[in-house]
Design a protein that fits this description.
With about 290 residues, the chain is mostly helical. The chain has helices at about 1-20, 30-55, 70-85, 90-120, 120-135, 140-150, 155-180, 180-190, 195-230, 240-250, 250-280. About 80% of the residues lie in helices and about 0% in strands.
């Protein structure tokens, strides 16, 4: 604990010093090439430290034992085994279907419910416990609950991902609709808009670009929950591969699966970003 506190203080001090002495400007736009170079620099530092900490053929020659942190090449060498012996591609597809199904079900319910809760006071009062549960109940609690409700089935895994996405998405939708400026409603009322038109022709269209961003973020969170969803009797999926590798002591395979999960999540995030640019081009005009 003491070592971590010292590290945290040194890290914050170094970051503060760099920010101050290089005279960084607050919220100043950064050239895309320079931004990409800085990002690449961070990745290079991480990879360099990773290689340095794990180099050496013998365990006693390494700073960190391979059971705790395997080397970069050991992780790369584990991919063929995962693919040919454990069905990596099939597991990717199974996990993708589970995450997408759970997220889709959550979005279908959370978006309209959030819109109505932010619009109509009686609806908000009736469903307020749902929002409170999402804010204060740990998501891990729903693992044994979904097992009790649905058993060790495929439905249990999708239900857990549905709950995990729903409890995060609902408050975001409520806040986004609530933040729509009242001026839009005032103008629509003077034009003779009905209550229904105020909801679906004023509030929702104004907020839909921000709602898209929230959907994009929550879908990424779904990939963060996939390991928990597949931790019990999965038989297939990326979480199942991690559980099997952990029981066999194949730490390199665990890191390989984590890299796959991150790569898929980043790729999906970029597709969501592209979709946002196509659907809402006005947000990206200079």
């Amino acid at each position: 604990m003491t070592g971590f506190v010292i590290f945290a203080l040194l890290f914050v001090g170094l970051l503060t010093g760099v920010s101050y002495f290089t005279r960084m400007r607050v919220r100043f736009d950064l050239d895309p090439r320079r931004a990409a170079l800085l990002t690449a620099g961070f990745c290079a530092v991480v990879l360099g430290f990773w290689w340095l900490a794990t180099r050496g053929e013998k365990i006693e020659d390494r700073w960190i034992a391979p059971l705790i942190l395997p080397g970069p090449m050991e992780v790369l060498q584990s991919f063929p085994k995962l693919h040919f012996e454990q069905g990596l591609v099939r597991s990717v597809w199974v996990s993708f279907v589970r995450v997408t199904a759970g997220f889709f079900l959550a979005a279908v319910i959370a978006v309209p419910l959030g819109v109505y809760m932010a619009t109509f006071r009686p609806v908000a009062a009736f469903f307020r416990p749902l929002a409170l549960a999402g804010a204060y109940v740990p998501i891990v609690v729903f693992i044994p609950l979904t097992i009790a409700w649905f058993g060790l089935s495929e439905t249990q895994k999708i239900a857990f991902l549905f709950i995990g996405c729903f409890v995060i998405l609902l408050p975001l939708v409520i806040k986004t609709i609530s933040d729509v400026p009242p001026a839009y409603l005032d103008v629509a009322v003077t034009k003779g808009a009905s209550q229904w038109q105020l909801v679906w022709q004023v509030l929702f269209p104004v907020a839909k670009a921000d709602l898209w961003d929230h959907l994009r973020g929550v879908y990424g969170v779904g990939w963060g929950w996939i390991i928990l969803a597949e931790v019990v009797n999965a038989e297939r999926g990326l979480g199942y591969l991690i559980a099997i590798s952990e029981r066999r002591g194949h730490t390199a395979s665990i890191f390989a699966v984590i890299i796959v999960i991150v790569a898929i999540a980043v790729a999906c995030d970029q597709l969501w970003k592209l979709g946002g640019r196509l659907l809402f081009p006005y947000r990206h005009r200079n």
